[in-house]
Design goal:
Layout (H helix, E strand, L loop, with lengths): L8 E6 L2 E6 L9 H15 L6 E6 L4 E3 L25 H10 L3 E6 L2 E3 H8 L3 E5 L4 E3 L13 H9 L1 H10 L3 E2 H7 L4 E3 L1 H16 L3 H16 L2 H16 L2 H12 L5 H4 L15 H7 L1
Parallel strand pairs: 2-3, 3-5, 4-6, 5-7, 6-8, 7-10
Antiparallel strand pairs: 1-2, 8-9
Helix pairs in contact: 1-2, 4-5, 8-9
């Protein structure tokens, strides 16, 4: 699978993780070319069996994605288009692809991400920010518009109505520590721990069977989208699918044979905030490939 044709970011594949570095000087403005490359990347990664996790970062330490290029908005028609009946041919369809695909998406934000850039990563499975430097915002209201890439829909579903109103109507910046407190991101981590944690997490997730990851993600999404009883029934069904996988049987047997279900082994703790040892399932992983 080739990743050499992208113009606005570089892709490196390592241990089941695609590291995608956004690089669109001078400050990573989001534009239609970048959006189309994100769409192409999603389709490429979905078809790449060697990738289970995607980690997005930026070549610019100060800007992850500044926002959508306003010069592309000011020339839009003076009359609003009719309301669509589907997401086809919209930016929402691209963002939804990342949200629902069986691969896991992670944003590692070290600088500023605002507007459409922030909306793009809101569709991801996880967002981590650098403490003391990362900034998150939906500033659209300042120029008289609203977030158009899902911000007014995804943010209240993550943080509730009142905090969403603060983010959208205030239009101001939220540093990583407040974004974490509000639930806009997973965690705010110090500079010396951010890359370490994100990479450890990505490699750990990528070490799990692809089918198991897809089932787990599907079940979590069901918990968000379905009524509670329907979601619980869906989880029960998906659990049955996961436990029946040959790869799951092999891992459970390996766990038992290694005395993993013992007081001594169960007492071990791993926060992923330190250098990691070799994946104990590495041998099985090679067989699964």
């Amino acid at each position: 699978m080739s990743y050499d044709n992208f113009k606005l970011f570089k892709v490196r594949i390592e241990r089941g993780v695609a590291f995608v570095t956004i690089d669109n000087p001078p400050m990573n403005l989001l534009n239609m070319q970048m959006i189309m490359e994100f769409a192409t990347l999603a389709q490429t990664i979905q078809n790449d069996d060697n990738v289970r996790v995607i980690v997005f970062n930026s070549a610019d330490p100060d800007f992850f994605i500044a926002h959508f290029d306003v010069s592309g908005l000011v020339v839009m028609p003076d009359e609003a288009a009719p309301k669509k009946s589907s997401l086809e041919n919209t930016v929402h369809m691209i963002n939804e692809t990342y949200r629902t695909m069986p691969k896991v998406s992670i944003a590692k934000v070290e600088g500023i991400v605002r507007g459409g850039g922030f909306e793009f990563i809101q569709s991801f499975d996880m967002i981590f920010g650098e403490l003391g430097k990362a900034v998150f915002a939906q500033p659209e209201i300042g120029v008289g518009i609203i977030p158009g890439g899902g911000g007014t829909i995804r943010i209240p579903r993550s943080v509730g109505r009142r905090r969403a109103m603060e983010v959208v109507l205030g239009g101001h910046d939220f540093p990583a520590e407040i974004a974490e407190l509000y639930g806009l991101i997973n965690r705010a981590l110090t500079p010396d721990k951010l890359t370490l944690y994100v990479e450890n997490l990505a490699y750990r997730i990528a070490s799990h069977p692809a089918e198991s990851l897809a089932i787990a993600k599907k079940s979590v999404l069901a918990g968000v989208e379905l009524p509670i009883v329907d979601a619980l029934l869906e989880e029960q069904y998906l659990f049955g699918q996961a436990v029946a996988l040959p790869s799951s049987k092999a891992r459970m047997n390996m766990f038992l044979n290694a005395e993993g279900q013992s007081r001594e082994m169960e007492a071990n703790q791993n926060t992923l905030l330190e250098e990691q040892e070799v994946n104990p399932f590495a041998m099985l992983e090679e067989k699964e490939k």
